Structures are given as C-alpha cells and as structure tokens.
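Notes from the pairing session

We agreed to fold both candidates in a single pass and log them together. This is the raw record for the first candidate, unedited. Please don't reformat it; downstream parsing expects exactly this layout.

Candidate A
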Amino acid sequence: MKFNKIFALLLAAAMFTACSDDDADWNSSAVTVSMDETEISVKENNGIFNVPVSVKADNEDGAMNGPVEVTVEVTEVGENTAMENVHYFVTQKTIKIVAEEGTGNIEIRAADDNDINEARTFTVTIVDVKGGTIGENATTTVTIKDNDSVFYEKLQGRWKMSATSLSSGSSETWNVNVIGFNEGEPGYNEVLYITGMLGYEWTMLEVYYHFDMETKTGYLEVPYGTLFAEGVSFSGLGVMDVYTGTVSEDGYIVVRGSFTGEWNDEFNFITFDPEAQIYGFLAPTGSGSLNGYVWFGYAGFTMTR
C-alpha cells in the first residue's frame, strides 16, 4: 500500500535555478550517466513516481570526485500518447547527483483523470550531462495505465465526507482520501482505507470492498472494532489508541458487526446506511482494551467528489 506524499509542483521555471559551470565544480573523472530502467509502468492514481538515473564509473579509478548534473526531456510516443502537463507533471527536468549517492530521480506525478481510457505512453530521455557522458541506455519509456476501469482503484482518491455529530446534532464535512493496496499486494481488491476523517490526516477508517464481476455490482462494508487512530494524546487520559464501534440499544459498547455503503454509477457519490453510527472508543496504547471513554460519535455518512 502506498501513501501519497505532499507534492509541490514547480509551475515556473524561475523557481528553479540550475547550477552552471561557473558555480559548481563538476565531476572530472570518467563516468557515464544512464537510466536504470528501459520501461516503467504506473497506474494513473499512483500520484508521484520516480524515474531513476544512475552514474557509473568507466573504470576502477573512475569514482566521482564531484557532482554530476543531468538534464532530461520528455516526448510523446505510441498510439495513445501521454501529454506533459495534462496526463503527467514533471517536478524538474534538471537534477544534480552528488558523489556520495551516485543515483538520482526524475520525479513525476501522474494525473488521475477519472475517465476510462487505454494506457498512455511517453519517454524520458537524458539529453545533457555535466561532469560525465551519456550512457547507452539514455531513455525510459513510461506507461501510465488506466485505473478507472477497475472499480477498486476508481474509488480511490480525494473525496468529501459528511456526517452528523451525535453529540451536537450538527453536520460536519472533511476532506478525506481513499487509499488501497497496489495490484499484486495482499489486500488488493479487498480492503480500502479512508484517511482524514475529523480533519486529521492520521485517522484511518478500514473499509471492505465487495464486487461481483458477473452482476457488475458492489458495495463497501465498514466493520466495527478496527484501529482508527494510534497513539493519540488526550488531556487527563494520556496516550490512547482509538477503535471504531457502536452502542447497543441498552447502552453497551459494540465492536462487532458492520454497516454498508453503495456508490452511484458515476462513482462520485457514496451513501452509507443512514441509521448506522460510528463511535471512537479509547484504549491505552498497545493494550487493545477499551476503557469506556468515547472520543466521538457520528451517523448519516455520505461521500462526494
């Protein structure tokens, strides 16, 4: 499972000042600079990914004695091309690789377009090197695969979640992110997580994904008794873990069972059982033993985007 990191896109070339020959002592030993991989494949909802670049000494005495500057360019290729600043964004096309590391990355963010489409391709090619020469493998072909034809992946991304507070009766809305596992990982097509509830990025609601390929219908299931937040400091109580649950009619804590939600055909609205309630029950960190204290209670969950 991959969590997205904060991505700061450099929109203006003026924000990046490349080192020149006058303000850097470039490597003078015999090295070549190449792409680590000839092909890379990513899903369009993966967010940020790296195209690795490495420096290799031409002989045993050719260790780097200074930094190397690498400049790349991107090109549309194939029958269904990926266009720069439409289907992907490059953070910067000139990077510096220092002698202590010997490797670097061209950082790229794929754009999630919410459309069903064929895979799109483009190339990243080394076009200039300061402090070395361009190696034989100068190009990486990048394929951006569609995620919208796979409903498990289509549900992932940014949403707005709304719910009614059981203590105040007021409606609240939070910016949340639905994340999941990568194809091939345990949990893929089975488990999703909703982060950002209550306005905190570190909260995480576990959700089971169900889909019937024959009928092309599915639903989400929210189980009780899962870890919602870990190591939260509460005044007067200390550091606590938070588990989801509900309350029975006679007032007892319930951490078994679940409730469900369904998405619409456009995948832009999810409605959950309006009668279902979620409480956040506290337990001393690492104990898993609820102490009877409640952090929150909500009902009437919906999600839109």
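Candidate B (folded immediately after A)
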Amino acid sequence: MCGRFLFTSPPDAVARAFDVDVRHNFPARYNIAPTQPIAVIHIDDQAPINKQRPIFNLMRWGFIPGWAKAGWHERMGGKPLINARSETVAEKPTFRAAWRRRRCLIPANGFYEWRDEGGTKRPFCIKPANKDLFAFAGIWETATDPDGGEIDTVAILTTSAGPDLGAVHCREPVVIDRANINAWLGEDERDVSALLPLLTSQPLDYWHYFEVSADVSNSRNEGARLAEPVGQGDLFQ
C-alpha cells in the first residue's frame, strides 16, 4: 500500500515536468497523510472535447465514489480509501467508473513504508534511484461530502511489490512514466483495457530506500528531517 508520501518539488519544476499550468504556491511537504489535500494532475473534463488538456488541482486523499450517499463512508468502516488495487480496479463497483473516465497523476518525490518485524514497525523512505520527481497512478471522483457539498477525492493505485521492495512490504504504488502520461490521462474509456499493462511494479534497481525516524509515523510531524536516513542509512538498498 501507500499510506504516506512526500512532495517537495517547487511549482515551476512540476509545471515543466508535466507540461501543466501550476498556480498553487504550495510548500514542500514531507509527511502527507490520508484525508489531507494533495496535488493532482488530470484532464479538464469540463472543457470542450477539442480543448481538454491536463490541469493541476488539489483533491482530498481518500476516495469516495460519485454514487455514494450520505453516511456511506461510515458504513464502510470510517477509514478513507487511499489506495485502489490495480488487479481489481476495473471491476470493483467503487472504482470502475473512475478507472474508465477519471484517471490522474499524483506528483511525488518519494513515499514511506513500514516493515513489520514481529510487532515492531520500522519506517523507510523510498525514492526512485535515478530521478527526483515522479508520479503515482491515481483515480479521482467528485463526491458528496458529509455537509452535502461537492468534494474531489482521489486514490493511489497499487500493485504487488517488485524486486526492490519485497523485503519491505508486499505492495507498492503504481508509477506512470513520462512516456505514458498522455495515454494514461487521455485514453478513451472504450480502449481503457490498453492501459492495464502500465499497472505493474518497477524493475530491479528502480527504487532505493533507507530507514528514517519513527517520528514520521505521527502525521502531525513535518519537515525535511523526516526524510533523512537514520542508523546505517542505505542499509538495505
């Protein structure tokens, strides 16, 4: 799964990397947690078909399907749906409409995972070995919030962990490479099955990771120190 991540690139770097107009002057964030607003890049589906292009928005991290009625979140146990399994996203009623029509990118510079060691969980920061800024695959939906208003919500797609991360966790977030961005965002729903091959783990040596302070486990903590190595640093990768 992916339950915490960092996004530290400045707005101009995001604009260049994804060819999108970024008007939000957002600060670097080293401990982004579920239910918080996160940066999302998606197709502007309110524009005419011939003028639709990627736009940058903030959305709530915690997916709610558009058909959900008041109280749905509580009936589902109260936990936000921060991830969607790529193996079932096309079939699950909760996610399948968003999968067909509302895919997105979530810019990031890394994420955190906790390795269970017999009841003790050790946090690791995980980043691409050869790049700084990248993007998770996501799906989004406009839903009704508890007060009756509209809210844009988003989930990160995950898949089985690849060769780099199997020693840390059994899942990893899906990453969309730059070469596949246009297809990911713009594929017509009639041809969406062509995107399934993108929902894979990364190959050997894509990720590197290092142990970080347990302070990252508290979502109220923030700052660059949370993403700094502790102990033996790059002990595992």
